[in-house]
Amino acid sequence: MAEVETGRRPRLLRAVGGAVVVVVLAALTRYLEQNVPVFTKGTWLGGIAKSVEYPVYAILLGLLGNAVLAGLGVRDRLAAGFRTEFFIKTGLVLLGASINFAVVVKAAGPAIAQAFLLIALVFGFTWWLGGKLGLDSKLRALLSSAVSICGVSAAIAAAGAVQAKREQLAYTASLVIIFALPSIFVLPLLVDALGLSTAVAGAWIGGNIDTTAAVSAAGALVGEEALQIATIVKTTQNALLGVVAVALTAYFALKVERTGDAKVSGRALWERFPKFVLGFLAASVIATVFLESGGDRSVITTVNDLRTLFLILAFVSIGLEFRVAPLREAGWKPIGVFAGATVFNLAVGLGLASVLFAGFGG
């Protein structure tokens, strides 16, 4: 018995030590996110710093911590404290509170139609292109979800549904960030060059940029109406996150990983289904009812702040758990797939936005 207790204590201490590392890096992430724009204001870096989101700082600090801990030979010992899955699922459940279905309904048909069509077309194209280049099915699912729905959040949901490797999720999250940052500035410039109306511009931005914060930044550069439409379109896409998770769970259980004539039971599907998606949907419904019944919006703001905290902890943990070897094996092909899918998304998204939002508004 004493030997068992002796063994448990070091494991607990290592887990606590790992958790402390995550919390410290998360606090540093928050500090950088809030203060770097202030420190660089008025300089050529000011505009860039203002647009950098917390996932960038969190993942970079996580990677830096990963390298330091690996160099000291203690990374694997502290890994029990890097609770990526717990942080991610908690953050995504809280994300549901920001998805107000009443707002989506107010946009009527255009936003819903664009979301369904864009997700179906872009997901299908990305899946097909990934197959042509011989990518692993799980990585294809992550890339397809990220490009077609809502970036990192969709990739996280897909990772839970298909049981992807953490390295694949980290790689996908990195690609989302790399492509989203320049799009904040590029898309508003293209809007001016193409002479798009504010409604069409907002729908295009909302349907193409892969993170909600980046959508808000780009929409604000175009104008208030564009920002509102962009938010509604992105919100609609976010609301479809659970639908895609269910579809991926069923597809991988019934086809990709099915062997022989073995039947897959409903229980097996339920065991594979990422349960946090139900929490995500429940939080969305509760928030919608709460706000529509006159609830204090500051409550939702507090929930969103808490969500951000958990996602910061998750992104830091992703960086700490990152392993280079599997990505070296992946090579350039995932980047090619993501880039090709992004171009396809831009073209199809512009076409849909131009048709569905033509003459929209007053």
TrEMBL record:
Membrane topology: Multi-pass membrane protein
Major site of localization recorded for this protein: membrane
Subcellular location: Cell membrane
Pfam family, one: Cons_hypoth698
GO CC terms, sorted: plasma membrane
Residues spanning the membrane: 12-32, 54-74, 86-105, 111-129, 141-162, 168-191, 235-254, 275-294, 306-325, 337-360
UniProt keyword terms in alphabetical order: Cell membrane, Membrane, Transmembrane, Transmembrane helix
Coiled coil feature spans: none
Presence of keyword Membrane: yes
PANTHER family: INNER MEMBRANE PROTEIN YEIH-RELATED (PTHR30106), UPF0324 MEMBRANE PROTEIN FN0533 (PTHR30106:SF1)
Family assignment from sequence similarity: Belongs to the UPF0324 family.
Protein name: Conserved hypothetical integral membrane protein
Lineage, highest ranks first: Bacteria, Bacillati, Actinomycetota, Actinomycetes, Pseudonocardiales
